[in-house]
């Protein structure tokens, strides 16, 4: 997939720090745009807390992989990729599972969305059975 404005969660400026709250709000807006949620789908305190927990986990994990000035951008891209992991999953999108909780509800769900985005399943050819 090529990156364009509609597929980019954040303007990624390496020299610009962003508050966690602003990052989560931007991620939520991106999620709502991608999943075509209505204005009635809100960033509730419960949803915000889920994302804050995932943010803390990934920032902690990335500290061993990136210099401190690169961690925030790497974490933003992980949020982006996890959201796109849900959006690119036809089953979830077509069967009513396009919810914030399906990405940020648990560490395992977040990891599954990342995995799906980074390594989508290969299309199955029914002749291969």
Major beta sheet summary: none
Cα(first) to Cα(last) distance is: 29 Å
CA-based shape: globular
What average pLDDT do the residues reach? 86
* CA-based gyration radius: 15 Å
Number of helices: 6
- Which regions contain 5 or more consecutive residues with pLDDT less than 50? 1-5, 124-129
Percentage of residues in helical conformation: 55-70%
- Going by helix content, strand content and strand pairing, the class is mainly alpha
Provide the domain count: 1
| Multimeric organization | single chain
Question: Based on DSSP secondary structure assignment, what is the total number of beta strands?
Answer: 0
- Residue share in β-strands: under 5%
What is the N-to-C succession of helices and strands?
HHHHHH
Short description:
It is built from six helices and no strands. It is an all-alpha fold and 129 residues long.
Descriptive overview:
It is built from 6 helices and no strands. With about 130 residues, it is mostly helical. The chain has one domain (about 20-120). The longest helix is centred in the middle third of the chain and has 18 residues, at about 45-60. It is globular and about 40 Å long. The model is unreliable at about 1-5 and about 125-129 (pLDDT under 50).
Secondary-structure blueprint:
Elements: H1 20-35, H2 45-62, H3 71-87, H4 90-94, H5 101-104, H6 107-118
Helix pairs in contact: 1-2, 1-3, 2-3, 3-6
What descriptors fit this protein?
disordered C terminus, disordered N terminus, globular, mainly alpha, 6 helices, 56% helix, 129 residues
